[in-house]
Amino acid sequence: MGTIVCQECQKVIEHFDNEKVATLYSKCPTCNQPNK
């Protein structure tokens, strides 16, 4: 079981099935929007 975590706000974005347990860092849609 793996987890994708937002590197900006540390919110868990998604869980996925994988052979290894892993934590991947990405950006969630909220943090990905440009600041206005």
From TrEMBL:
Full protein name: GapA-binding peptide SR1P
UniProt cross-references to Pfam families, sorted A to Z: SR1P
Superkingdom assignment: Bacteria
Database matches in InterPro entries: SR1P
